[in-house]
Amino acid sequence: MIHRRSLLAGGAAAAAAAALPRGAVATLPEPVGQTSADTQPPLAPPNGRPYQPVATLNGWTLPWRMRNGWKEFHLIAEPVEREIAPGMVANLWGYNGQSPGPTIECVEGDRVRIFVTNALPEHTTIHWHGILLPSGMDGVGGLTQPQIKPGKTFVYEFVMKKSGTFMYHPHADEMVQMAMGMMGFLVVHPRDPGFRRVDRDFVFLINAYDVEPGSRVPKVMTMTDFNLWTWNSRAFPGIAPLPIRKGDRVRIRIGNLTMTNHPIHLHGYDFRVTGTDGGWIDRAAQWPEVTTDVPVGAMRVIEFTADEPGDWAFHCHKSHHTMNAMGHDVPTMIGVDHRGLAAKIVKLVPDYMVMGERGMADMGDMEMPLPDNTLPMMTGAGPFGPIEMGGMFTVAKVREGLARDDYGDPGWYRHPPGTVAYEWTGPADRPVRARTAPTPPAAVRAVKPRPPGGGHGHH
Per-residue b/e over 266-286, b at no fewer than 16 CB within 10 Å? Predict the structure, then answer.
């Protein structure tokens, strides 16, 4: 839930207030936190320029205050607990109680002042990825500013020169701090509220962690072999669905702060790629896709009209990214009858895990015990049985009759009669196998190809 923290109660904010110049304490905005992993309703702007707010998948938007023409926010960089999915919690670093931190929303032309208090055990900074601003506000520790030491508060001030889709993350001990979950979304809405207006605007960041089974803290030295692929630090079935009203114009903004690219695929629709972190794409230059690749350190914006109701899968198309707790050392046992063997081996080697003799789906029947605080590789139940997914997977739930501001889970789709794939129970002819092609006559086999150019060879 959202909670407000007293500036005089507790460590970080009180220490930060004491570190500010005399007379500045009264201007420090009250910090606001959020601990729930549920998607919070969009935050309608209480003041300032109007805009259509976004819905952060498994996240929320940071409130602000207006003061003398400045829109003021307060971020607290701090250790947090994040439920990756039911049954697993990780100890991460983030902002204002969560990883990723809250989404910051403002409008093109806004004067923005962001207070950043450091409650981490080491120094930090914040870089405003994609924002056009003075060099000294760019947030690169040692290059454009001193690092923010523990207990200190720094102030960033700049004018939002253009609308678009951006993010924030540290540029101090970056490998550690981003591997621990320090990042957040930043949306700058157009000055004209009618510019490319949509009905539903979703945002999320792609991130990845390496958390050993039974552990709670990511391994920050990992470079390639991650075992938890997440959206907004959540893995399926913990990733919330996207509730959409039939007929809505939908925008989804995606940012990638992992160490690999992600081909993001939506079932049931084709969409147009309408923006990057460099800005909006002219309509004539937009291109249609059903899968768009999101490179490392980049943003992609996609849009479509939700005219077909149903439950539509939405996921990364790298197959290992829709599984949890994967590892390269899992042996393949397809075709091997190892009934009763795995349980005996686990008694000797607790971390041993094998693929089922008929594939990974077979593992669901093995009922192998998992270490505490660990997710199974494939999980989630749907209306027709196990969904057998994990990681970067959720469902776009397009429904008729949803209220404009309704972002609650509408449940599973009720398919009209005759629209669900079904088992054939009628007669089935045996398949006819193709015959082997006959051997060509000897005369044909004796013909030799002419040399290149169609001419005669040299004699």
Answer: bebbebebbbbbeebeeeeeb
